[in-house]
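Hi Q.,

Before the meeting this afternoon, I wanted you to have the PMT prediction in hand. No need to reply - just skim if you have a minute. The sequence and ligand are here:
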Amino acid sequence: MLNGKVIVLGVTGGIAAYKAATLCSRLVQRGADVHVIMTESAKQFIPELTLQTLTKNPVYSDTFDERDPSVVSHIHLADLADLVLIAPATANVIGKMAHGLADDMLTTTLLATTAPVMISPAMNVHMYTHPAVMANMETLVSRGVSMIEPGEGLLACGYVGKGRMEEPDTIVDVVERFFRERAQLVALNEEIASSTTGILHGKKVVVTAGGTIERIDPVRYITNDSSGKMGFAIAKAAKQLGADVHLIAAHTDEAPPEGIRTEKVESAQDMYEAVLRVFDHSDIVVKAAAVADYRPAEVATSKIKKRGETMTLDLVKTTDILESLGRQKTSQFLIGFAAETDTVEQFAREKLKRKNCDLIVANDVTQEGAGFRTDTNSVHIFDAEGLVLQLPVMSKEEVAQRLLTLAADRLSGRSS
Ligand code: PMT
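Predicted structure with the ligand bound:
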């Protein structure tokens, strides 16, 4: 599995650094091309020459020790890496990584790399359970860094507890599993891509995205947390699947996807009018936008001045776009979203029925990695009969792909 894989191995200054020699040796034996970066303190525990001899590659520790004038070493290594593995990872390097510090060769390389990063912590048990270290590790995990949990036992400092760096053979197994799973995922995605190419060819897909803005006065408005990521991912996936896509985007954090006809709108009313203009000629409508249910009854023409201790805003209902489309639809396949914080299935199915949707995509927006602003989502998709598809946390692009594949399947079932 490791044949031809470039592993940048970061060795930091803890007693477990002595295990780096065995780790290098095992990785090299399994075919990896290992490039070691050591911190200055790691060199107190193990000589560079040992790791250089085992890897047959130069060992780096000084950012400014440029040996090849044609490249900048830390950028070169950062780009070369298929994986950056840090073993042992001290509390210090974990803290620096969490806070984006770059004051040596290893941490500058870590900031410059786009390769996956895996760390194998090793330290005293009290250091390991210190709230600061715990918080730093949580930060790293939330950014996608993989942890190889330390083992429990007698530590070099004399304590018994958690903090012992995992054994080199186990680390190598974890690394191999990582590459194996990645290869499987790539193969699966390629298979899905080839089996779904063009399945929406000739179909007109309308997607709404983002959060509507309901003006209070010229400088204030009511909106919500939608970033537009989910809707944009659906628009992109629809295009990849061959559809003619019309994207209607309210307020978003992101730039709209390139190469897709995008109409910018502000309020729920604007969105309603924009959707109605294209509805008759559409085959699939996906309402991923977060639309305000209420808007201010009056929009002040000049900035409202501060007066009493309290202020009351009169709100009136907006048009429920999806419900209106549900009443008007002829052959259109209608997909709604339901952003829920509790009783997810019940509310989602109630919306599906009331808004006459063909599918409803329920996301529990309180769940980690799901809902507003995140790059990932986790959804349950229902039709009138019940649950059709349950997707664990995955990228919004993958959710979009799976949702549209399902919609295309249902549409083709209708026409046959
Ligand atoms: O944009 P992101 O940051 O990526 O976040 C994605 C998301 C959480 C916004 C998205 O996944 C999502 O759940 N979108 C729907 C949010 C929402 O408004 O849910 P709702 O349960 O309030 O509305 C149900 C459905 O009715 C939605 O399809 C909505 O577009 C539609 N609706 C609601 C009110 C209204 N006046 N008109 C509508 O068409």
